[in-house]
Amino acid sequence: MITPADLRTYVINLPRRPDRRTWMSRTLPPDLPVTFTSDWNGPFDGHELTRKQLEAAGYKLFPWQIESDNPWWSRPLKYGEIGCTISHLACWQHAAETGDEKFIIVLEDDAIVGPTFLEDLLVGLRRLVPSNPFDLLYLGRVPLAPQGERPVTPGFVSPDYSYCTFGYLLTRPAVDILLATHLELAIVPIDEFLPSLYIDHPRPDTRSRFPKQIKALACDPPLVHQRPKDEAGSDTEDSDFVEP
Fold it and tell me: According to its UniProt record, what is one Pfam family this protein matches (predicted)?
């Protein structure tokens, strides 16, 4: 029987965004202990990052900008994107080093969880395990290729290419798989990294660096939604491009 004790939850949050931390603290279930990344020291804030700081911390950037009709690929990385990826990576590292919970939940601080979130999640996990094994479970996302998706069991689909990482769950073995890719040595947007691990990524260079190696599922309908950008802002986009 899966219970709240089997869950460990992280919330991606910056120290300069106590408003978002308050929002999340008020809306998350009290039975769900939460670790906020704003309590950690790290190169997480795109407003403060520099190339020199990243290199000193041992991070390397993937050569992201290419000639493409895709506007997200034809421009350099933004420091906010880098900080966001490093924040997710820090959560996985912390989970791998501490605790023994079966599942790791990662939420960004603009996530919206409903009043029955925990109950619905536990019911869903009990339905999935062990008959439908998975590594990654999107709790919410933006599907980019819905025509390529298929139902797995009531309430869940096999996702195709998807953006947004405001809410997902990992099994503990999946945490080790993600860390073994050494994302810190080839930083890409977290939105692109996760799909590359469960589909053949449409960018050959990304597909080659991060080949398909996990099984993903997605909640359908989603359990987690995202606050509108005009309401919560975007710490990812509200940052400078990395200089050449």
Answer: Glyco_transf_25
207 SS3 class: helix
Domain residue extents for the chain: 4-232
pTM for the complete prediction? 0.95
Residues 59-76: pLDDT tens digits?
Answer: 999 999 999 999 999 999
Dihedral pair phi/psi, residue 152, rounded to 5°: -110, -50
3-state secondary structure 43-104: CCCCCCCCHHHHHHCCCCECCCCCCCCCCCCCCCCEHHHHHHHHHHHHHHHHHHHCCCCCEE
CATH number given to 4-232: 3.90.550
Among all chains, which residue has been given the structure tokens 């080949």? 211
185's tokens: 């040595």
